[in-house]
Amino acid sequence: SDHMENIYGYLMKYTNLVTGWQYRFFVLNNDAGLLEYFVNEQSRHLKPRGTLQLAGAVISPSDEDSHTFTVNAASGEQYKLRATDAKERQHWVSRLQICTQHHTEAIGKNNPPLKSRSFSLASQGSANSPGVQRRPSQNAVSFFSVGHHRLPSGKRVPIMQPDHLVDVREMMSQAEGQQRDLIRSIECLPVSGHLTALDQDLLMLKATSMATMNCLNDCFHILQLQHASQQKGSLPAGTTISWLEPKISLANHFKNGAAQNFPAEINKPASVREEQSVAEPCQLTREPEEINPDEELEDICDDKEDDLGAVEEQRSVILHLLSQLKLGMDLTRVVLPTFILEKRSLLEMYADFMSHPDLFIAITNGTTPEERMIRFVEYYLTSFHEGRKGAIAKKPYNPIIGETFHCSWRMPKSDVATNAGSNFSAHSPSEQVTLSKEVEGQAELDYYTVKFVAEQVSHHPPVSGFYAECVERKMCVNAHVWTKSKFLGMSIGVTMIGEGILSLLEHGEEYTFSLPCAYARSILTVPWVELGGKVNINCVKTGYSASINFHTKPFYGGKLHRVTGEVKQNATNTVVCRVQGEWNSVLEFTYSNGETKYVDLTKLPVTRKRVRPLGKQGPFESRRLWQHVTESLRDGDIDKATEHKRALEERQRNEERLRAETETPWCTKYFLKEGDGWVYHRPLWKTVSAVQAQQTDTN
Fold first, then answer.
1. Region (Disordered) spans which residues (predicted)?
2. Mean pLDDT of successive 10-residue segments in the chain (699 residues)?
3. Final residue belonging to a domain, choices 69, 90, 107
4. Whether the Cβ atoms of residue 119 and residue 190 lie closer than 8 Å to each other
5. 617 occurs within a structural domain
């Protein structure tokens, strides 16, 4: 072809939310069918920083502006690129599409059709496989009425009516059902023998069929946006565009390729219909809700994640998933199979890090800045063990945007470590009343209350905010975390981007801290969790800091879960405490006076959190939101759990799409954006400042 020349030049590549767009030097290698990029033109002779196979790829100009386009490889990896202008974008897009088509066709010519290899998916699968039940009316032509028609010159394409779009959506739903059946049939193949689920041609078939459906969904979304923009001027405010929702369930319209002769909604469990019929966010109250701790009951749920049966049974699915991934690939948008999920949301996992409230409250009881920093380090290192539920590495539910989790702990005052000279009654009666209604009569109570709230404030990127406070002790912690996952071969790494701030208002001190990375190791055998990386804790006012290293196990030898750290006085660079041990076993603290203390985390008492019964929880609170997924996982019904999970995710996508079409911004409920972070809407430091100002005015 005259257009099959190699081209090269600078494009901007989107890396992530932190790094943003970066200039990179790209080379289109037509002979090899590769798109490669380098840091700059001078490093072109070196190994490329990244490479995409273009065979089976989808090249899509973006509708967000005239400069951006995406390259979606058959492997699932995506490059989001930006040219200097529309002309340059068109040049790259056309050359990439020509190269992609050439190498995709070459694969078909160089590899014999599947039927010539003397096997049939229908013969390999069950009697219910698509090959057995397929009817003439179920081919792609009847679904989409594919044809090549030229419009008479001068005639415009008629605008599709809403009913037509619904019909297209239904046909696409049928195609998606058949595509899922195809994938299931491939995955049911044996793991060894002449034809396996990891056959190279079948893996390519799975990848290209998925890419095709994704491309069709993108095209359909463009049609929806176009129609919405034309209708926008004539719609009253707050109107719901009902035709944007499919009439039928994507999951239930086709079962093993067979058409249903009755409405899918009738056949759908009531719980799934409930999940899909929750009102749109604009109709839900986004006003912060005050949770009364007296309505919360001690949690009796104890879901330890030590069951490996489902993981062993679904190993073929894990193998297929691994075959789709590439080293360093971002897993944020990868849908993981349901059987590897924990029975709790990520927001609840953050709450479980607070399972030793006695150590948390005891921080502010330290009589010196040095002692308070050491106590915070002790609490910090003891929090990770209970945050994990069992030894098996499983993944908590990805919170949907707007999801919240509330709980509290009651800690008997006699169980909190004290020091002689500590002032426990630093509040005046009037200040106690003003700070919080729950504090009235606190002198008569024999326990402290620690309240916790978490909210998913962003979906892309996935950011969670959480806040905990003990009003009686004038202390609170505020944090925001962006979880970023990457595929690392036989393990998965999760980076916790963000920071937390512990405020001790009695002492006017703030402690900033970060979180370690987490790794799921040995994902093909017995998956287990490992923490790694260096974290820092710092208090500017006192000049004390702590440096903690979570050590990953070396390839040969070495201990598991090892952690070391030290607390310093920055002005003199004096080490006042050293710590070593395992973060899930025994920790050894050595102090500057020569004393040594051992903490056995396996014997440390755990205070159960208190949560409201499901009947009193709001529709977006974690346990009520995920209750049907959790119940299905407890019953061992993976298919039903997957169906409920898909319904929640589909609803979230529909709501996000509607907000984009109506240009409606998302409003958080409990957390406010401040700079690069998220802060609780009514933190204790603001409340205390207001009370002190009021008392000053009164005096």
1. 104-137, 638-657
2. 73 78 91 92 90 87 83 84 90 89 75 42 37 36 34 46 67 82 82 74 76 75 64 41 30 33 42 46 59 85 58 52 55 56 87 90 94 95 77 78 94 73 36 40 72 92 93 94 78 85 95 90 71 93 95 76 94 94 93 92 90 91 93 86 87 85 88 91 83 60
3. 107
4. no
5. yes
> Positive or negative CA dihedral for 334, 339, 344, 349?
negative
The DSSP result for 291-318, as a single string, is --GGG-EE----------HHHHHTHHHH
By three-state DSSP, how is residue 132 classified?
Answer: helix
In a domain, 298, yes or no: yes
- Rounded to 5 degrees, φ, ψ at 508 are 65, 35
- Look at the pTM and tell me if it is higher than 0.85: no
Q: In 3D, which of 37, 34, 69 has the Cα closest to residue 54?
A: 34
Question: What DSSP string runs through 509-525?
Answer: EEEEE---EEEEE-TTS
- Output the six-digit token pair for 398: 């990805």
How far apart (Å, rounded) are the C-alpha atoms in residues 470 and 684?
9
Angle at 438 between CA 436 and CA 444, to 5 degrees: 120
Q: Which helix (H) or strand (E) holds 165?
A: helix 162-187
Q: Which residue has the tokens 């890396």?
A: 15
Cβ contact 298:49 at 8 Å: no
Amino acid at 683: P
| Domain membership flag for residue 299 | yes
- Tell me the CATH number at 78: 2.30.29.30
Domain range spanning residue 20?
7-107
User: In angstroms, rounded to a whole number, what is the distance separating the alpha carbons of residues 220 and 98?
Assistant: 23
Fill in the amino acid letter for 516.
P
